[in-house]
Queue: 4 jobs
Job 1
Amino acid sequence: MWADFRAALTSKECDLLQQIWVKLGRVKFTILGGGQEVSQTVAASYLRPGDWMRGYYRCSAEALRAKVATVRQLFAQVLGCTELGCDPASGGRMMGNHFGSRLLGSDGELIDLTRQVNRASDVSCTASQMPVAVGLARASRVFQEVAEISELFPRMSQGGQEVVHVSIGDASMAEGIASEAVQQAVVQRLPVIFSVYDNRWGISVPLEESYPHASVSLALSGLA
């Protein structure tokens, strides 16, 4: 409980400071996750070593709670620090609040992914996280069904026992690739959890113009 509260509060304070930096001209641009902190931290708190996350650019609280990123790394990314020691996610090559786990060690060898919560690198295109998450979940199923693969790559999976958690805003769920991803996850019974944040508004379009009855739940109810 305390870890959830701490991550949510820390994320909120980071958002506020980034807003100040933008107004002062210290950074050009930042993307905030205000209002989603509690749901993100609760979702991340259930992830275990070996599990995967695939979020989008408003998931700083989720990344902090899962220890995919630290506060120092978050601000290093916003400032565009090019040192991997400062921003291990991309060395300043991704936009702010875009996270990702290091999969290789300094020696170039694969890190034991079963000992950490992993995050596939974020990208900015809306809904693009959805097919990636389904692909990760499909890989987990393959590890579960094909024993030979689990034996060959013991650092990549615990016999397919991991789950994938993906976050998305409700407006982005209207994208075709998002619908396709959910359908395939249901059809193949894949171990993926979808968190859809109820923002009621996209980047420039209200939810009423994206869904019948302005309800993602009703739109997806037939897939249950």
Job 2
Amino acid sequence: SHYTGATSAGFIRGGYHFAHPDSSSGATQANFFLAHGGGWSNDGITLPGMLDIEYNPSGATCYGLSASAMVAWVKDFGETYKSKTGRYPMIYTTADWWNTCTGGSTAFSHDYPLVLARYSSSVGTIPGGWPYQSFWQNSDSYSYGGDSDIWNGSEDNLKIFAKG
């Protein structure tokens, strides 16, 4: 209902998948995400799906994976997503988690748009060799509800980004 509601209100919309790298492969989770509303189409109003990869809320920070295993898991998710949609997913993370759990991997900085979470008055240090963030989540409290995310560009550029 949120997805269709956003469309009806004229918003550019998208879905996200909270990763659980300790429970199944990246490919398995990407396919689940795609089967449950996480797809992308070049209609100009749908963002590429977002892989939410961050602190484990119920266990080991890095889900029990080494940095190289985490990078492989993210690649498995991303390549599966791209093979089905033609587009790489966005990656949502924090600089601290990325540096800790992927060893600061730069493997995704050219193809995967970054959604950087940092609840502060500035973006701060961008991890993983990304030259910039596509979106910045600067707060978990927004006046209209939910989180506050800021697109790094103009509205016209956002529409171009959504179109692919």
Job 3
Amino acid sequence: WSAGTLRKWRTIQKRLEENNFTCIEDINDDKLSTYVRNLMQKGQKNSSTHRELRFLFTFFRWLKRKGKYDGKIFETFDIRMKKAEGEIVFLTLDELLKLYTFDFSEGRIAHIRDVFCFLCFSGLRFSDLQKLKKTDVKNGRMYVTTQKTSEAIEVELNKYTAEILE
């Protein structure tokens, strides 16, 4: 397993111990529900809790394949969670263009504006933009391997992204 995976396992192990799980056979619907409630009370978001449970259930499936666990909690526990409610806030195209063309007197703020607008116009994540090199831009296209999914993507430059790159 990778170092990141091992760190995640250690974190989950610590949280399970904090919730008085002493052995795998102790895990049942009631205890997992309490575990989820405790994570939420500590401020963890639904999406993070859901991801942590999926990660934990992956471990249970691995244990089952190895013959070290015979339960079915990973099949029976309902991990559906409510989505965050609230208004989705975004810039309209007119607002984005107003920001894009605004003349900032300080160069640093103009650079930050350019980065923000480039992300909006290209659809790239910030982590992918950080890795972008001149050699990744050829013939009016950007070739990027995304950090989050390791997927190789090709993004066509539009007039705004091309202008920012210039």
Job 4
Amino acid sequence: LKDTMAFIGQLHEEKKRVDLDTIDRKMVYLLSLNGRSAESSIAKALKISKERVHYRMKRLEKQGFLHGVLTLFDHRKLGISVHEVSLSLHPRADLSTLQKSLENSEEVNHIAFCSAPHDIQFQVTTKNPDDFVQFFDAFLAEHYTMIHDYSISKILENHYTGLLFLLQDLEKPKITEQKGSAFLKEFKQKKRSVGYSIDEKDKEILLSLGLDGRIPLMHLAKKIRLTPIYVKKRLQRLIEEGYIKNFIPFYSVSFLGYQWYVMRLRTKGISEAQFLSFLKEQKNIAWMTKRIGSWNYYLSIFARNNTELNTIIQEIRNAFHESLVDYDTYIIFKQEKYTPLVL
């Protein structure tokens, strides 16, 4: 598996399309609930053979729609800081030089090109805020001639809200099997109240899972030189303690005719639990991030056109009009780098 993953946006010059039938949609939806779900478990839920599930997953990978399974971590529990920088560039800025510099930086784990008011945004992972300041000061010193303006936000939490839009009006399939290495039981259990500090072997496990969330336990055990049973116990603890939040599929949703929009909100007096519960019921909203900055919530919305986007925005406005101070939206054209870091 490659060390980084790329996303092609709808407005990118390479427009591709894939057609997902009912089984494909339900299969990817089940993966979105738990990307480590066994092919046999998915097959049982969809009432088809394991071989058909395997064939369909490989076909979607070859078509460029499915890129693998990512592991979503709680970076605050890991003791690391994540900041997002949005840049507005001068018209004659050498974008290729800037992009190459960001791609070669170990601290930068996410790069995306977007519409106004900014041209490019990237996320920086460091051990603490002071390290970010040091990184950004050096970055500005090197590239200030290309930068017209910038803004910075600190990411506090990431919440994956699902892929309900894939089902459209289809009935939700369910996986009922508790066995295997999907750790369904552990995800359902309440997190432990006693603190748990990860060691170097735990870090090796997390690094291995970052871009390969479906890696078999036998392969993972061999890679980090532990027995499969011991690796499984460590994974169970990492999930129960909340270090691992989800195993999620990485996909190019633009191939289905959707565009990736970001809605930024500034709120006051909002019930976060109620807000998150609302978002999880909205078919077209896949992510919510809580931040410190000019905007305190960012939503990733997948819509087929501006009319559909406007409908989603109006639903949010109607539901939280008393708490919504301001909002805006922009488009993600493409993502050039995604590398989850565990320091």
